[in-house]
């Protein structure tokens, strides 16, 4: 059984920063698989924000390039999303994904003054 637990969400002012964490447990070792962060805003479809391959190569949505950074700590079985220069349009529920199959419960990010 695989469990992904996100943390680090909350309310932040425009221009601020947050760091999300996704801790994986169970029958999964993230060093062997791709990991990603997705988000879903109200009334919109879930979209890819950033992903990192098992080799560490990263891919970002155009809307977050230069502002967000995905990273992983394989020893801790944890993936991170550093979010800088946050904008109101970044407001959404952010989900961690493992190997395209497993999802976390989501964490709310609200960017508002």
In short:
By secondary structure, this protein is mostly beta strands.
Which structural traits does this protein have?
7-stranded mixed β-sheet; about 110 residues; mainly beta; 4-stranded antiparallel β-sheet
Taking pLDDT < 50 over at least 5 consecutive residues as the criterion, the unreliable ranges are none
- Report the β-strand fraction as a percent range: over 45%
End-to-end Cα distance, whole Å, is 40 Å
Oligomerization: single chain
- Helix segment count? 0
Describe this structure in words.
The protein has no helices and eleven strands. It has strands at 2-7, 10-12, 18-26, 35-40, 47-52, 58-60, 68-73, 78-83, 92-98, 102-103, 107-111. Strands 2, 4, 5, 6, 9, 10 and 11 form a seven-stranded mixed beta sheet that branches. It has a four-stranded antiparallel beta sheet with strand order 1-3-8-7, with no helix packed on it. β4 (35-40) and β5 (47-52) form a beta hairpin. The chain starts with a strand and ends with a strand. The model has no long low-confidence stretch (mean pLDDT 96).
SSE inventory with pairings:
Layout: E1 2-7, E2 10-12, E3 18-26, E4 35-40, E5 47-52, E6 58-60, E7 68-73, E8 78-83, E9 92-98, E10 102-103, E11 107-111
